[in-house]
Amino acid sequence: MKLEKIWAVYFSGTGTTRRTVERIAGAIASRLNLPVETVDFSRPAVRQETLHFGEKDLVVFGTPVYAGRVPNVLLPFLREKIVGGGALAVPVVLFGNRNYDDALIELRNILAADGLHPIAAGAFVGEHSFSRVLGAGRPNAEDEALMDEFSARAAELAAGLETAPQTPVAVEGQEPIRPYYTPQDRAGNPINILKVKPKTNMALCGGCGLCAEICPMGSIDPADVSQVRGICIKCCACVKGCPTRAKFFDDAGYLYHQHELEAQYARPAENEVFYL
């Protein structure tokens, strides 16, 4: 196959998925001496557009892992707005040091159904969106070295293909895809944080409006950033992106879940990569 362009396509609330996908796509492009084009679909307006790819493209496609799956708010875009056109694909997921469960196989299957051909795939560890200590510092230098090795092998694989493979790369996960991971207390009772929204310490807020600008759901009112008028997916873009740390969560269930994750999954999780 004669490739002409590498794509870095991603959703990234706090920037970890962006850095990972751009690093991998850039390294593949460098190996193959090809240009890179980036599509960041983290903002609502971008998810209204249709992305078209073709047989001369290789797409590194990344999403974070939410509750062990591809974020459900992205599914309409991923299933309806991606036209694969026979492009090669490298699905990538970022998980917050717990587990990626079925997110990678789900993303692989979606891309294949969209008309792309997944030839390699990776699940990489990043700092958890809820926490500043769970997976802190990840991806680190060792993780980045694996990304570079992964990119080199993916580039070599792509360069050696005469035609697009009809069977996608095998990855870890279960089919049918399992339900989204449900937070529980120590008695096994579910904790529902779906409607929880961040608060704003207006004494710390500098009025820059950045939180409203970077909210992936467009839910924060730019005229009054203390108001979250739409759904909150707990990506923590506003919390971690606020330059004065004015954004925070104080819901008891949310904080319990955060602290349980930090206690149970303090060990460094491992990245996993897969090739045809």
Q: What string gives the helices and strands in order?
A: EHEEEHEEHEEHEHHEHE
CATH top level of the largest domain is Alpha Beta
Radius of gyration: 19 Å
Could you say what the CATH topology of the largest domain is called?
Rossmann fold
CATH H level of the largest domain: which superfamily? Flavodoxin domain
**What is the beta-strand fraction?**
15-25%
| Alpha carbon gap, first and last residue | 16 Å
Low-confidence stretches: none
The largest pleated sheet is described as: 7 strands, mixed
The number of E-state strands comes to: 11
Derived from helix and strand composition plus strand pairing, the structural class reads alpha/beta
How many helices does DSSP assign?
A: 7
What's the overall average pLDDT, rounded? 97
Instruction: Kindly state the percentage of residues in helix.
Output: 25-40%
Counted up, domains total: 2
CATH architecture of the largest domain: 3-Layer(aba) Sandwich
Q: Which shape, going by the Cα principal axes?
A: globular
